[in-house]
Write a structure and sequence with these properties.
CATH class of the largest domain: Alpha Beta
Largest sheet: 8 strands, mixed
CATH architecture of the largest domain: 3-Layer(bba) Sandwich
Order of helices and strands: EHEEHHEEEEHEEEEHEEEEHHEEEHHHHH
Bound molecules: flavin-adenine dinucleotide
Number of helices: 12
Number of domains: 3
């Protein structure tokens, strides 16, 4: 294998594999590195929301995903009080109105194989320890067991997810992940409702729990909480998960069911609004750029999209022969133009989850006024632009006034 590339991509999750796929498909010489060997698991809810589906189709993998995953078009949200609102995903202009749940063990491997088929050089089990940039390019320092090696590339993409170690080593200061979450798979569930459940009852607040069905009898179940600094020090994703499992709704759901595999926890970074997205000759994609929705926790969609945006911008830079800071700033501007309003809006709405009384008011209101969840879902799925200067209070008032 050559040791010199146009682009080196670190991390072969959805963000890295998407970037590798779109670059390699266009004939760019790409190296894709991951410290894991594939197939590898990634702790996740495994939910592919409608926003993720068009780009999976573009990558040519949607037809391989839908026969495995379970298509669901209904979501139920429970307030801390236990009151619920259930609604169907409305018709969307640019995406199907259903979501799919597919284990990351399978999804990420499928995406990686697609990038390799397109021509990317992949090396697994390779830990990237550092990136050094100079006037000609980037030196990627890797470790594989006891063996150290270097690769050269004109540009690098960092797609390392919530882990901030590599970012810190190259002088990018990223905040510590602000959410921790844990999940486990359950099988033999007797009466699993055919919809997504997003629950604020029986969880450590501020936080949430979920039940994402994988089949009529199996589900990915998890819970997470937002670190506010006020929680007791012993609070962890595992204790949040255990408390969710002990809640009335989940205990009844899981009577007679069995856990399959181990409980796994992982942090989540949702700080795109203030996160750096580039450094000299380096572009950040996916969760490495804080691209996980602070309200809903979805990040696979943004990982795939930002991988494609970075790939297209890199092709443009390579064509021009211009890798200057101004070009990197343009990449940042493109990401902000696309996501900043959505992240600001989602952050604002998610602050409601810090306040159980607000949730206890909002959920019955949404149940009584179906237009409210419809507006929110359209915004969160990218079908309607997030209002620039609108507070959640104004949305509620606006919806209420039209009824
Ligand atoms: C509990 C939980 C539930 C979630 N549920 C959902 C959900 O239902 N739907 C949704 O859309 N999103 C969900 N998310 C968010 C989603 O998992 C992430 O946003 C998504 O995985 C980000 O993709 P990525 O490609 O940026 O990073 P990742 O998928 O994290 O991939 C990063 C890759 O980089 C590799 N890597 C890291 N450091 C190095 C290094 N130094 N050298 C080499 N390789 C390295 C890792 O091995 C990994 O393969 C959830 C997250 C958590 C924690």
């Amino acid at each position: 294998m050559s040791s010199s590339f146009d682009v080196a991509i670190i991390g072969a999750g959805p963000a890295g594999s998407s970037a590798a796929y779109f670059l390699a498909r266009a004939g760019v010489n790409v190296l894709l590195l991951d410290k894991a060997t594939f197939p590898r698991d990634k702790t996740c809810g495994d939910g592919l929301i409608p926003r993720a589906l068009p780009i999976l189709a573009e990558m040519g993998v949607l037809d391989a995903i839908t026969p495995h995953g379970w298509k669901l078009d209904t979501l139920e949200v429970s307030a801390p009080s236990g009151r619920t609102v259930r609604f169907t995903i409305p018709p969307l202009p640019h995406a199907p109105n259903y979501a799919v749940v597919m284990p990351r063990l399978e999804l990420d491997n499928l995406l990686l194989q697609q990038a390799v088929k397109a021509g990317a050089d992949f090396r697994g089990g390779v830990h990237v320890r550092g990136l050094q940039t100079d006037a000609q390019g980037v030196t990627v320092q890797v470790e594989q067991g006891n063996h150290a090696e270097t690769f050269r590339a004109t540009l690098a993409i960092v797609a390392t997810g919530a882990s901030t170690a590599l970012l810190t080593s190259i002088g990018i200061s990223a905040p510590k992940p602000n959410i921790v979450a844990a999940r486990a798979y359950f099988e033999d569930i007797q009466s699993l409702p055919p919809y997504f459940q997003f629950r604020f009852d029986g969880v450590v607040l501020p936080g949430y729990g979920w039940v994402f069905p994988l089949s009529p009898t199996a589900a990915n179940i998890g819970a997470g909480f937002i670190r506010t600094g006020k929680q007791a020090h012993h609070q962890s994703a595992q204790t949040a998960f255990n408390s969710f499992l002990q809640s009335y709704a989940i205990k009844s759901l899981l009577a007679g069911a069995k856990q399959a595999g181990t409980l796994r926890s992982f942090p989540i970074r949702t700080d795109f609004a203030t996160a750096p997205t580039y450094a000299s000759r380096v572009l950040l994609v996916g969760e490495a750029a804080g691209l996980v929705n602070p309200l809903t926790g979805d990040g696979i969609d943004f990982a795939l999209e930002s991988g494609k945006i970075a790939a297209e911008h890199i092709r443009h830079m390579l064509r021009l022969g211009d890798v200057s800071p101004a070009q990197l700033q343009t990449y940042d501007t493109m990401l902000r133009g696309r996501y900043q309003d959505l992240f600001r809006f989602s952050g604002q709405v998610s602050r409601w989850s810090l306040n159980p009384r607000a949730l206890n008011t909002l959920v019955p209101l949404a149940a009584a006024r179906p237009r409210l969840p419809e507006v929110l879902v359209n915004i969160l799925l990218g079908a309607k632009p997030a209002p620039e200067k609108m507070s959640i209070l104004r949305i509620v008032k606006g919806v209420a006034s039209r009824l």
